[in-house]
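Hi R.,

Here's the chain you asked about this morning:
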Amino acid sequence: MSHHTESTPAIVEEDPTLVQDEDTLVPLKIEDWLTVIVMGLLSLITFANVIVRYFTDQSFAWTEEFSVFLMIVLALVAGSASVARNRQIRIEYFADSGSEKRQRVLARFGAIMVFLLFALIAVLSARVVWDDFRFGETSPGIGVPQWWYTIWLPVMSVAIAGRALGLFIRRGRQP
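And the predicted structure, written out as tokens:
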């Protein structure tokens, strides 16, 4: 059995998942860890429900409602991370073609549009939270105050808007 000890340079194709994150004012690890925590909670809840159903022919009533809530939070956290990493949905043929200046202008335009959209969603959803609180709305499944769930939409919308504003500023600083 021969042992190869020479170091040979490896040819590595560019993998977009291995691209170094840009420096941001608020660390991107926040979204990364929230993703891990939410996915872990979803897995635990689902696993516990399967075990309980298997052994008792019953299910936890709260799991479906809470799982849907966690999936929505997960989508918003992922949206925040994608905006901060400039990986949001776009037509790459237009966004990544042309001169550097054109690409920067389009990136800034996209970032400011995302900022405006999520700032508007934050304002409007805050009104929904206030109505849920004011009128004492409860969730349909387990009867907890509805605002416990709806409060996260304006919070995460502000986070996404902040990430978009940060991207807009970073793209403006590029030469």
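Residues 100-134 form the longest helix (35 residues).

Let me know if you need anything else.
M.
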